[in-house]
Amino acid sequence: MRNRQPKSAAANNASTKRPEENTGRKPKLGFFSFTCCQGCQFTILFLDNLIELLSKFDVQYFHLLKEKNRESDFDIAIIEGAITTKKELEKLMRIRKKSKFVVALGACACHGGIPGLRNFIENDQLIKYVYNQHMLKDSLETKGIDEYIKVDYYLRGCPIIKDEFVRFLDNFAENKKSEPFNGPVCNQCPKRGNDCFLTKKIECMGPLTNGGCNAICTVDNFPCTLCRGPLPSANFAAEIKLFENFGLTHQDIINKLSRFKVLEEKKCCKIEEKKKIETKTDSIDNKTDIKK
Ligand code: SF4
Ligand code: SF4
Ligand code: SF4
What we know:
Blueprint: H1 5-13, E1 28-33, H2 39-45, H3 50-54, E2 58-62, E3 76-80, E4 83-85, H4 86-98, E5 102-105, H5 106-111, H6 123-129, E6 139-143, E7 153-155, H7 162-173, H8 216-219, H9 236-245, H10 250-257, H11 264-291
Parallel strand pairs: 1-2, 1-3, 3-5, 5-7
Antiparallel strand pairs: 4-6
Bound molecules: iron/sulfur cluster (3 copies).
């Protein structure tokens, strides 16, 4: 699987102004949800100033807020959740065609997120354990939405950061550009007075991760888990080596790195794992041959 991070970085660095002239009408907004826990949507629903914020828009589609929803043309479509079925993919394509500006909301939409863990389970295992086996017929490998459509802006995190969402939407309503945070979580973390986890040999993925969350986890004494997705410049090889020096097994490291995104590196490591398994199998085969 390709790492789509450079694409997302380019999108957020591009102009986020509304493409149309200021006509005085409210921008038409659609909010859509695909496979996810809807935690990002609930983060929005619990905003204190939600009514005030949405009053700047003509909300055409928002299932958890409105009884009647219409798939009209949208000035902005906000999309939560990963794509995991053919049916979802069709709807995603339809939304893109109808929308001038598309926002990926949260880790699931930005890069697959937690639902991406499904990609590491073989279909025969899923058939055995998943409650609705009919769903598997329609099932696709879990992917973030930019694997299929052009995304104009990324609001990251699992869940998203409230203030970041409000700032972005306010700017959009006023036809102003939003500036995404540029750099890793480590750019914000020490400024908040933290002792670095890495100096204590505790694995923290801040150096690999898109910043902008104000290092909320490390401030609360939790290492960063890469929920805002990897930076284009993320040096996975160095981080893997460092964690191995901390005493972690290769598999544990890969599991940690893959919690929120199916990575190229996971694939590389899968190849390494496969090689190891093949070597083991070869040696077993050789032994069997000797016995023969
Ligand atoms: S990014 Fe996290 S909180 Fe948001 S919908 Fe996905 S799993 Fe839920
Ligand atoms: S604790 Fe984590 S996020 Fe903070 S500076 Fe160290 S590596 Fe970076
Ligand atoms: S510190 Fe890391 S895990 Fe926590 S919100 Fe920020 S990016 Fe996500």
